[in-house]
Amino acid sequence: MHPRRSAQEVLLCDLCETVPLQSHCELCNINLCGNCAVKHLSDSSKRHNVVPFLQRKSTPNYPKCPDHADKHCEIYCEKCGVPVCSTCALFGKHKGHDVSDILEKFSAKTESLQKDLEELETRIYPRYKEMASNVETEKAELETKYEKLTTDADEQGEILHREITAIVNRQKSAIAEMKTKHLDALNKNTEEITQKMAELKQIMSDLKSILKSNDVSLTSTYKSRNSELRTLPPTVRVTLPSFSPQKINKDQLNEMFGSLSPLSINTEHGDTMKSAEAVSSPPVKPLLDEPRVTATINTGYNSLYSVSCLSEDQVWTRGKNKTMNLLNLQSELLTSIQTKSGNAPTDIAVTRDGDLVYTDYDNTVNLIKNKQIQTVITLQGWRPRSVCCTADNDLLVTMDSDDRKQSKVVRYSGSTEKQSIQFDDQGRPLYSSGLFYKYLSENRNLDICVADYRAVVVVNQSGKLRFRYTGHPSNTKQSFKPYGITTDSQSHILTADWYNNRIHILDQDGQFLRYIHCDLESPLGLCVDIRDNLFVAECLTAKVKKIQYL
What we know:
4-stranded antiparallel β-sheet, 26% helix
């Protein structure tokens, strides 16, 4: 081991490498012994600043120039992006290049490194730690969950065993009953034959007595019964029952027993965390005591279901027919687009690029770019309901199975499925099933918020359930059925209470904050523009109201 690198040795002078260091030159960033410090100061070409080693400042450690051994790289070449010495900058291969003060670059880079370290320590590493903890939790629950599957299989086997035993016992009982009837018939036949045999024996005995007596009277009065007795008693013929076993079809037996869904192991693309700057807190905007309507748009629909902001003064709308209309605040029609299928769209959303997305009853999700419709997602066995665009420009889609027994939220990047959210940690469905619209929105903290008919269901970015909001606790007598849902820059969650003609405002943890009334009638679809103005689609009046509430 080098003596100057060993932790067991004293620190030595950088020049002579034999005597322990005493001083430090802050200009050259080298450590010196007493003698070398004197020699070093004798160099009058530079203004050396030699101080006791323990009083040295934290100065940058300039790299030595690879082309000039006696020079340090104290200049930064902007063109090449590397530190260079003054000789290289003035006369060497970096001559004529733009240069800057390396200390400024060093300071900016140091600040950037500090920010990286802070983000790694406070945000990124904790997320990795959380993910590792979630995996460990899942591993810990593995035995219990698979044991339940085994128990379910055993229970189903016992049910089938009981059914088969019952069938066998019924067959045995039927066989025993047939055997009894068969034996009864044979016994009855035996009795009849035995009775006739006894009668025959008596006749034969009487005939022998007459013949032996030579009695004229008895002989002359005898009447023969042989013709009668030549007719034998009836014979009982019983066909023995037979058992015809049904050939066991293993496929049908497996189908009767039940099926085990395949193990699905999908490695989802890791979520990309936003930078610290991207998630920095926005300016605080307090809620207004009295929200106010600032504009009203007449859409011309018979019924209005969805609204999505293109800008502060332009909104896309969709109603009961096949057209989607772009309107301004003066109710002027700017653009009208028909669905490719001719069906009424089930929901609409605007992407980060300003393009329109709509879901269709023909099981597709479609993107409209420059008025051209492109089908980006086609579903099999599932029907898309509502759609929203995320901060990463992904699409979140709520959907129901064709048999209406299952519901889930799926995240897409383009046409690629990235994430499916359907069950909680106990394997229970997160969302209700049936023909209910499930409007959804991504919150600023990346939670996924779904208005699920009787509750607002909120999961985090990984799909873990955070909370369910079922209405203000004080209003137990009023039914709460949320429809439209949106979120704002303050991470508020706003949901349309259609039956009670109002909007509920929640904080990001599901705590009720207040209502918005504003004489709303049948509020349904919701959206918020970049300035946190709320747009409310009134279903029955077919009007969009723009509301300032912050």
